[in-house]
């Protein structure tokens, strides 16, 4: 009995292929994530890290926390305040890069290409650029119901593991018809953004350069608290992926919209609906921008309409100019 023919691969606008993400290795050479300095010592690192440990430069005194080295206790401050305080030092050392990519169901959306495809390209470019800079690369990839954890290593194998996880998780977003009814099953997502950030806090070590890629559609007060805690010990950057169709409804008319097995008509001619839709997006956008500003976090907005490489190249070039000035 002949074996069934393999299913055709989905187009690149729907699922980013492993080959396409691997080819971004060459494009990533145009991105400089970290400044390069001349090595001044065989024992020291090449830059000052956000990692706080027993280094050469004193950083601050803070209340003692369980797990702190008792040799770093500042006895003078402890005696003056009657509560234990410890000295924190800033040291130079390597900075591992961790990419956190949100590929939940809301990312499976786009007018020309999907947000999930753009997110996969951003994650791959950042990983390749980090590897080119000599960093250890790790990642967390979150889908609707599963999580993939890639251990940080300084090797191409680690990046290729990330690319495979991105591809497989993107494939899981494709609707799967039920065998009996032929309808599209509906399912509730396992992860919220707050849970993604909470899991990231468990994995990310102090000093990690942490890059979170998401649409941040469910950003709330709990997420802000997790972002604050992450920013205290990590070099945190946010990459927001959005589509023009999220900002404004298409031209007035009747449009069929589906969500799993549910299908309905959308009347885009209603002025009140268009106004509420646009206001909702503006509120979400303002909330994200204010959160990033309050926590002093870099925020880069990436549109599915624009090439990801151009957006990242421009952003990191501006960042490099600010460092030089």
Description of the structure:
- It is a single chain.
- By secondary structure, the protein is of the alpha/beta class.
- Helices cover 37% and strands 22% of the residues.
- The chain has helices at 18-27, 75-81, 115-132, 156-172, 193-203, 221-233, 244-247, 271-294, 308-324; strands at residues 48-53, 57-63, 85-92, 97-102, 137-142, 147-153, 209-214, 235-242, 254-259, 262-267, 299-303.
- The strands form 3 sheets. A 6-stranded mixed beta sheet has the order 6-5-4-7-8-11, with helices on both faces. Strands 1-3-2 form a 3-stranded antiparallel beta sheet.
- Helix 3 (115-132) runs antiparallel to helix 4 and helix 5 runs parallel beside helix 6.
- It is globular, with a radius of gyration of 23 Å.
- The protein starts with 17 loop residues before the first helix and ends with a helix.
- The relative contact order is 0.13.
Produce the secondary structure layout.
Blueprint: H1 18-27, E1 48-53, E2 57-63, H2 75-81, E3 85-92, E4 97-102, H3 115-132, E5 137-142, E6 147-153, H4 156-172, H5 193-203, E7 209-214, H6 221-233, E8 235-242, H7 244-247, E9 254-259, E10 262-267, H8 271-294, E11 299-303, H9 308-324
Parallel strand pairs: 4-5, 4-7, 7-8, 8-11
Antiparallel strand pairs: 1-3, 2-3, 5-6, 9-10
Helix pairs in contact: 1-3, 3-4, 5-6
């Amino acid at each position: 009995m002949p074996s069934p023919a393999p299913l055709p691969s989905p187009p690149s606008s729907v699922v980013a292929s492993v080959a396409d993400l691997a080819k971004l290795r060459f494009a990533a050479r145009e991105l400089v994530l970290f400044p390069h300095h001349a090595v001044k010592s065989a024992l020291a690192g090449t830059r000052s890290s956000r990692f706080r440990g027993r280094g050469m430069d004193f950083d601050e005194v803070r209340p003692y926390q369980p797990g702190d080295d008792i040799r770093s206790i500042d006895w003078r401050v402890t005696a003056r305040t009657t509560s234990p305080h410890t000295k924190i030092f800033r040291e130079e050392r390597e900075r591992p890069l961790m990419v956190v990519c949100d590929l939940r169901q809301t990312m499976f959306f786009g007018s020309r290409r999907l947000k999930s495809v753009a997110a996969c390209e951003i994650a791959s470019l950042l990983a390749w650029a980090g590897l080119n800079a000599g960093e250890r690369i790790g990642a967390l990839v979150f889908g609707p119901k599963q999580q993939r954890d890639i251990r940080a290593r300084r090797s191409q194998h680690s990046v290729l593991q990330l690319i495979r996880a991105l591809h497989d998780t993107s494939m899981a977003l494709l609707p799967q018809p039920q065998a009996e009814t032929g309808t599209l099953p509906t399912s509730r997502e396992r992860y919220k953004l707050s849970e993604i950030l909470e899991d990231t806090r468990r994995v990310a070590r102090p000093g990690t350069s942490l890059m979170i890629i998401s649409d941040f559609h469910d950003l709330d007060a709990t997420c802000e608290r997790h972002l604050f805690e992450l920013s205290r010990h990590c070099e945190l950057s946010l990459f927001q992926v959005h589509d023009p169709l999220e900002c404004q409804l298409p031209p007035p008319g009747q449009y069929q919209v589906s969500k799993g097995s549910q299908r309905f008509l959308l009347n885009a001619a209603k002025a009140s609906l268009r106004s509420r839709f646009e206001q909702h997006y503006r509120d979400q956008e303002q909330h994200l921008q204010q959160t990033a500003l309050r926590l002093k976090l870099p925020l880069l907005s990436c549109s599915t309409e624009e090439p990801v490489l151009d957006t990242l190249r421009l952003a990191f070039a501006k960042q490099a100019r600010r460092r030089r000035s």
